[in-house]
Design a protein that fits this description.
Blueprint: E1 2-10, H1 14-31, E2 35-40, H2 45-51, H3 57-65, E3 68-73, H4 88-99, E4 103-109, H5 122-125, E5 129-135, E6 145-147, E7 152-154, H6 160-175, E8 180-185, H7 191-207, E9 212-217, H8 218-227, E10 234-237, H9 239-250, E11 260-264, E12 270-274, H10 291-303, H11 308-323, H12 341-353
Parallel strand pairs: 1-2, 1-3, 3-12, 5-10, 8-9, 8-10
Antiparallel strand pairs: 4-5, 4-11, 6-7, 11-12
Helix pairs in contact: 1-10, 1-11, 1-12, 6-7, 8-9, 10-11, 11-12
């Protein structure tokens, strides 16, 4: 089997974490008989510098023909001036839309060895294992925008069809786990959220009566993620709420650098990226956490390439590397050795090839 992978290192720490993700991917591929056809392409700020736009036509063409897309991170101060006409984030929104990847899966679980990396009490964190399903191609990020000297507006629109399909993805996932789904909205204020709640309820009653549905307002959800995180199983929400809540949830496991994501549509093609940003303040210093990127490649193996055993092998190697103490500054214990980005990659590779027993 040959997998065609579009590789978008991006900006800031993106190329650094991507390098480790690819090293681990190549090792897993060799062990599981997978041939890799990797094409590296400009994207984000790097593409603006090289081509004048964040999503060049060739980058999009290769991504559309690929089996999966791996993305590092994009953005940075040099492309974020208020008067900037073209921004890296425009390329990311356009790529998601063009690929039809409307369901963003963000799993959040705590490695026992990293309880001390979180600011929350260990008894609050014990047993945390949840997944966010974020709607990715609708909502305020994609609505019509207006600005003049005295005002600005961003239009938030959702259709019933968009809500139906993301609800089904989340419910099917919940059915394979603990059969608990929480839908997050702001139905006490927003019309889009009232529609969201109505459609979600209708779909769940008609198609998933075996899955328990709970509705939470987004502000309450933000509070309960910190107060009782282990009570959650699967959470489904709209684009902006999901963007914000998943960054909050990353602190449950100790660092934004740990969490992967998978953006999926109706077919095989998926977009895989760590949820962290480009972190330009630590770029080129060799201290970026590559675990989120490496774990994103595992999600790619599972969802786009249908190689669950390879995915599990990589995920287990990550867990064992963390247990063995391979940690970048963001998750290192006080007084413990701090690993570089490359050394963390080395540690995962060592675990991949170590005999198990």
């Amino acid at each position: 089997m040959t997998a065609r992978i579009a590789v978008l290192p991006g900006d800031g720490i993106g190329p650094e974490v991507m390098a480790e993700g690819l090293r681990c991917l190549r090792a897993v591929a060799r062990a599981h008989g997978l041939e890799l056809d990797l094409t590296e392409l400009p994207f984000g700020g790097a593409a603006i510098d090289a081509c004048g736009e964040p999503l060049p036509a060739r980058t999009l063409e290769v991504c559309r023909r690929a089996d999966a897309v791996l993305l590092g991170a994009i953005g940075g101060p040099r492309w974020s001036a208020p008067e900037a006409r073209v921004r890296p984030e425009q390329g990311l929104l356009a790529l998601r839309k063009a690929l039809g990847v409307y369901a963003n899966l963000r799993p959040v679980s705590l490695h026992p060895a990293l309880v001390g990396a979180s600011t929350l009490k260990p008894e609050v964190l014990e047993g945390v294992d949840l997944v966010f399903v974020r709607e990715l191609t609708g909502g305020i990020y994609f609505g019509e925008k207006h600005r003049d000297e005295r005002s600005a507006s961003d239009l938030c629109i959702y259709t019933s069809a968009e809500i139906e399909r993301i609800t089904r993805v989340a419910a099917q996932l919940a059915r394979s786990r603990r059969r608990k789904l929480v839908s997050v909205d702001k139905a006490n204020v927003l019309e889009t959220s009232r529609l969201w709640r109505e459609v979600c309820t209708r779909v769940m009653r008609a198609e998933f009566p075996d899955v328990t549905l709970e509705h939470l307002l987004v502000d309450a959800a933000a509070m309960h993620l910190i107060r009782r995180p282990r009570d959650f199983d699967v959470l489904v929400t709209e684009n902006m709420f999901g963007d914000i809540l998943t960054d909050e949830a990353s602190m449950l496991c100790g660092s934004l650098g740990l969490l992967p994501s998978a953006s999926l549509g109706d077919g095989r093609l998926g977009l895989y990226e760590p949820i962290h940003g480009s972190a330009p303040d630590i770029a080129d210093r060799g201290i970026a956490n590559p675990y989120g990127m490496i774990s994103s490649t595992a999600l790619m193996l599972r969802h786009s390439l249908d190689l669950p055993q390879a995915a599990m092998a990589l995920e287990r190697a990550v867990a064992r590397a963390i247990e063995a103490g391979a940690r970048t500054p963001d998750i290192a214990a006080p007084g413990a050795r701090v690993f570089t980005t490359r050394e963390v990659g080395d540690a995962v590779l060592a675990q991949l090839t170590a005999p198990q027993g």
